């Protein structure tokens, strides 16, 4: 998406726009980069630590330390490679997969795409199957990068009612080549929806998930993986919600982290294959065809002070910033984690993996 559009995005009521906020604080840094797939597996070291298999399938990107159990500590110390554009980012990022349910009741996983060519670096356009990651600092020098051992979760897979806080949203691409990708996420009521789009999307479906931007300054995690972080008092009304004030309980400003996933739903655009009752044929991997239960997990793994360098910089946009080191896409795609749960991931299946649980 266009940087000018992002920076001109209106924020929550009483908060300055992204551009106004940046001017007041001395500039904006937006690290926006792709991470290729490291593994697709039914593991969740945050919610179901040590459980093989976990309750539903996930798409995982980032460092090769990902496993069923990820104890507290600095994962960057044990990782030897990463699928992300920044070679010192050994973090792990994961979300649910999307499936198409055909008229006969069988399911097939929907594959993912890279980022839009016209707005991205060459690396991010080639991640096919990965996730686009954003770290934003609208106030350089006043945003504290995550600490070793930090982790968090956003969203609730059990939710089936709309989330008006817009911590996640979907965009129905209006045509091929990311048609309609010309406005910031979760900002346009016509382009974005809180739930999964209900009609054919000619260019695929995009999912954006926004994490909290305030931290209690003490705990690297919490029992629910949420309580140690919070959204600004104004709420996550839109991207770049950094302009809102942090609540007194969570006074430390942390980067605005956002995931962007693009699913190639075009092979399933023939409505003759959709359910006869006209119901939503796309399901997230835990059996949700509303999309309200979209969620995402994060384990911080940047090496040394690398992320803080980016957050302290001014006007870094995209996948290059100051002295931060990049890697080649071929090297990133060579990084992988062996699947721990032997399940079909690409063929038609009779039920979603884990639904019997």
UniProtKB/TrEMBL annotation:
<feature type="domain" description="DUF1996">
    <location>
        <begin position="44"/>
        <end position="302"/>
    </location>
</feature>
<protein>
    <recommendedName>
        <fullName>DUF1996 domain-containing protein</fullName>
    </recommendedName>
</protein>
<dbReference type="InterPro" id="IPR018535">
    <property type="entry name" value="DUF1996"/>
</dbReference>
<dbReference type="Pfam" id="PF09362">
    <property type="entry name" value="DUF1996"/>
</dbReference>
